[in-house]
Each structure stands twice: as C-alpha cells, then as structure tokens.
Amino acid sequence: MQRCSAKKSKNDVLQSIKAIVLRSGDCNNACPFIMINRHIFRTDDGVDRTFTFVLVSSLFFLWGFCNGMIDVMDKHFQEELKLTLSQSAWVQFAHYLGYFLMAMPAGWLAQRLGYRGGIIAGLLGVAVGGFWFIPATQIAQFWAFLLGVCLIAAGLTFLETVANPYTTVLGPKEYGATRINLAQACNGVGWILGPLAGAMFFYGTDAQGKSTGAEQLWIPYVAVAVVVLVLALIFFRADVPDLAGREETVAATDSAVAASGGAGVGRGVSQLLIWLNLGVLSVSTGMIVMAVCAVFDPDETHGIYFFSGATLLTLAGTAAVLSGKLKSLDGKSIWMHPHFSAATIAQFFYVAAQSGIFAYFINYMTSQAPVTISNQLASTLASVGFGCFLAGRVIGAGLLRKYAAHRVLLVFAVANIVACSLVFLKLGWVSLVSVFVSYLFMSIMFPTIFALGIFGLGERAKDASAYIVMAIMGGAIMPKLMGHIADTSDISRGFIVPLLCFVVVAAYAALWPRLSGCQSMLGVDTGKAH
C-alpha cells in the first residue's frame, strides 16, 4: 500500500495561518472574532472581492438557519396535528427529498445560469417556499406544510451547489480552503440560531398559557422569504462576476489510485457494493411512492404495501437493465472503485443517523430527561447541541491535519456508537449528556466520508461528488424507522437506529485502506460539511 495525501500542502496551511488570526487559534474553523488579511479576497485581476464574499457568506447563514428550524419542527406537528413520532418524520423526508430531487438539476442549471443566476434562482425558490407557509397555515393540513419544507430545501440546494465552489474562486487559489471555512462559520451560527427562532414561534404561548404555535408558524418563514427577496435584489445589482477557477492537475499518487479500480479487493466485492447501492436506490424510490400515497391515504399500513411493492419493482427493474452491463465495467468506471461505492452507502447511513438524532432531540429531552424540560427549553438546548457540533468541527479539523482521515473517522464513529448505546440504556444524566456527545462526534463525518469517497478519482470526482451528495436521502428514510420504534417503545430505544448506522460508518472507516489500496489520506477540508 502507498501513503497518499490530499491536495493541501504544508505551505497551504502556513499561508492560511498567515491569512487569518483567530482568537481560538484554529485556522480551519473561523468565527466572527477574526482579523482577516484582505489579500485572500483579491482575484487575479487585482479586484478586492470582500463585499462579494460577505454576500455569499450570508447564504451559508441562511441555509444553516433554515435547517436549524426544521429540526425543532417535528414536536410541534406531533402536538398540533396529533401525529405519532413516525408520522412526524415526514418533515425530514420532505426536507431531504428536496435536496435529492434537485441535486442534479441544480448543478446542470447552475452551469448555464452562472454564479449570479444560480444564486438568484435559489433565493427565489426559498422565497416561494417561505411565502407558501401563509396559505399552508390556513389549509392546516400536514401535506401543505411538507410542501413548503420541500420547496425551501429545493431552493437551498441551488444555493449550496453554487455558493460552495464560488467561495473558492473569490481570491487566490491557495486561500480557497480558508474562504470556504470562513463562510462555513456563518453556517454554524445559523444552525445555532435556527432552533432559537423555532422555539419562539413554534412553542410560544399567550397570556393564558395557550399554545400559539399553529398561528405563528408562518412568521419565521415569511421573514426568511422577505430577507431572501432583498438578498436576490442585492445580488442582481451587485458585482458578482462569473469567475473561473484554475484547473488542477491530478497528483501522481491520486492517478495511481484512480487507475487501480480498487486493487485492494476483488472484483466481486466491487460488484457487491454496486448491488447494495441499487438496493438503497430502490428503498428511496419506495419511500417516495409511500409519501405520495400518504397524501391521499393517511393510513400508513396501506402505505407500507405501496412502499414494499415500489421497492421490489425498482430493484427488479434495475437488476434486469443493469445485470449485463455490470459484468463489462472496468476500472474506468467510478463504480468499480470500491472506496467510492462504499462511501455512498456510508454517507447514506451517516445522514440517516444525523437526521434521526436531530429530529427527535426535543422528544428525547421532554420525555427522557431526569428533570422536567418544556418544548421551548428543549429547542434552546438544541442550539447547545449545534454548538457542540460546531466545536467538534473545530477539534476534528485539527485532528485531520495530523492524523489519517479514515482513522479519525473510525474514532469518531466508535465514540458515537458508545454514545448511542448509553442513550439506549436509559442511564439518566449519563444518557442525556451522551446525546450532546453524539452531536460533537458527528461533526466531521460528512466531509470526511465525502473526501475519502472521491479520493484518487481525478476528473471523475465531479461525477462521484453528485452521487455522494444524493446519498443524503438516508436522512429522509431512517427517521421513519426510528420514530416507529419510539412509538412502540420510547425514544431512548429508538437510538438503536443511529447506533447501527454508525456501525456502518465505522466499518467503512476500518476497511477504507483495503478498499482504496492506499494506506492513509491526510489533509481533509472540513469546510465542505453538510
């Protein structure tokens, strides 16, 4: 096996340290209390793009804020619409479905509309979703709220597709990682503030102590819609050039891995992983069919039949179409690189675990904590959880600069297995603290799996990236199972679902050297986190 490194040299790190001075002392996770060398925003034509960068950074805050509100919404619907925990998980389904459906179209349209056009299209999409909550509140049906969630997620997909790469070209190439991490700091702040806004409007009460959540649900979303319309106007008038990044050459070590086609394992393992991916795709299709049926028939017993039928039909159809083609695949196909095809599976289960823990955080705090905690206080504690998540990203960034990425991922995955086990065992304060520990150790998983999955693929990494992003569909599916277990037992027992998901992530981390044919990978950029 060879020892490999990511495309981030020691000189890049030193340049990043010179560019920013952090009170926290960490260059990969910037916070508002920083001094910035404006040179990192100066493009090759000599123009200072600081203002453009600030505008783009506001988008990172926006989708962090929207995601933070989504994760405290389930408990509101459970109480207002008398839903079970499993039924309320349709919120996460609608959210991740928006990402899943728009991932490929957003990339295609962004290439044709350019950076400015892609950003404005995304902002208008978020505005449509935000304003939809006004009639949704009047309709007062679950499907109406879910449509709004899905529309906002579709708009956010555009923003993420455009904003992430755009930050990397708003100045010298060597400071690309610094800029994206500065922008991601705004995303982290949004995640923390989102639940606070949700607590204020979703779980507010009047002078008589009566819940006002049903009447006020639309307020934060309409506020977001107004803000994004203002931002769209600013982006339309502002100087947002379509800058092109310079082409990178593939390092020799990467090329060797790219040509190997997973030399560390047999062809049978590669094809097995492909079939597992097809299974995941079939389950995702089945869930989409089940969601459509739920709009017309709320009895989920019938929905399970549709889910099973659609899953089996999709699997049988893809097997019939692809069985012959799979035999002819060679190392030129990204799917014959087992470290990539296994990464899509690992990412599916990671996002599934993350979504479930985030979605049922309030349920856990209000029903399993050793002391009485209200919905509003639990929403505030969710912000503390996201603070732990951001702290974990800071810690993880430092570790990833010093240690092999797959080993750091393995340690974090095992830590989460332990944390979820402690929650499952219902140990009072120990279990409650373990929930926050889980937030801490989930922090670096998405970008690390992402980086390990596309490692060594060269130009094919662009196609591979889209598939790994689509794997977030796991966040739409597993919360349903976690909610079902919680309905039949309690939410502590439901943590068996994320526990098993983290086992899959740990297995991927442990097997990565053999799957990739590479001993280790250093220098993962945690800025590209979901």
Furnish the topology, listing elements before pairings:
Elements: E1 2-3, H1 10-19, E2 20-22, E3 34-36, H2 50-70, H3 74-80, H4 85-88, H5 90-139, H6 142-168, H7 176-202, H8 213-216, H9 218-237, H10 252-260, H11 267-296, H12 300-327, H13 338-359, H14 361-368, H15 375-402, H16 405-424, H17 429-442, H18 445-454, H19 461-470, H20 474-488, H21 491-494, H22 496-516, E4 518-520
Parallel strand pairs: 1-4
Antiparallel strand pairs: 2-3
Fold and architecture overview:
This protein is mostly helical. The protein has 2 domains: 2-249 and 330-520, Growth Hormone, Chain: A; 265-329. 73% of the residues lie in helices and 2% in strands. It is built from 22 helices and 4 strands. It has helices at residues 10-19, 50-70, 74-80, 85-88, 90-139, 142-168, 176-202, 213-216, 218-237, 252-260, 267-296, 300-327, 338-359, 361-368, 375-402, 405-424, 429-442, 445-454, 461-470, 474-488, 491-494, 496-516, and strands spanning 2-3, 20-22, 34-36, 518-520. The chain has a two-stranded parallel sheet. Helix 6 (142-168) runs antiparallel to helix 7 (176-202) and helix 7 (176-202) runs antiparallel to helix 15 (375-402). Mean pLDDT is 79; it is low at 5-36 and 245-260.
